[in-house]
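Data deposition worksheet. Section B asks for the primary sequence of the deposited chain exactly as it was used as input, without tags or linkers unless they were present during the calculation. Section C holds the resulting structure in token form. Section D is free text for depositor observations; keep each observation to a single sentence. Incomplete worksheets are returned to the depositor.
Section A, Depositor: J.P.
Section B:
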Amino acid sequence: MDAITLLTADHNRVRGLFARWQEAHEGEDQELMQTLAQEIFTELQVHTTIEEEIFYPRVKDANDEVSELVDEGYEEHHVAKTLMEEMQTLEPGSDQWVAKMTVLIEAVEHHAEEEESEMFPQLRSACGPDVLEPMVGELEERKRSLGAPVTEDKIDLTKEELTQLAKEQQIPGRSKMDQEELAATVAPTTPGSG
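Section C:
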């Protein structure tokens, strides 16, 4: 596994949370919406921290286009953080809270798609495994220090157990993932299921 695979796993875990939040919203399940929103905020806070502290500084100088994408990434993170801060001051489930969550989802989806389609392919060529593979340990260590689950916490689960968690968590692309990718992607439990 390399840093790009790990960051893509984070994106997919959040996409699953978005899908479940949208279902809860459509079903008017205010409590589940609030639970999933808090999980989304936690995931995004951890992800933006590891990108800003470790990943972006290491890859920024790969080439001019990557440098521009990293600069945009910092700004897109700022937008997401601002929306999350504003949502904390609003009544969960209110029209304004729901509108801000909708904008947050759209902004994060755009950001993840841009990284995956524009930045990551360039970095695979420019940096290669010598840079991207060793970074995984640092990214995972920082995630653990922030209280987030890491791949190691789930790697002992069978592929069937991981696949079931991925299904419950609505992880996109789960059928194409190997055991390590599934372990990097799923949360150890499904918020709102218990």
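Section D:
The longest helix spans residues 95-126.
The mean pLDDT is 93.
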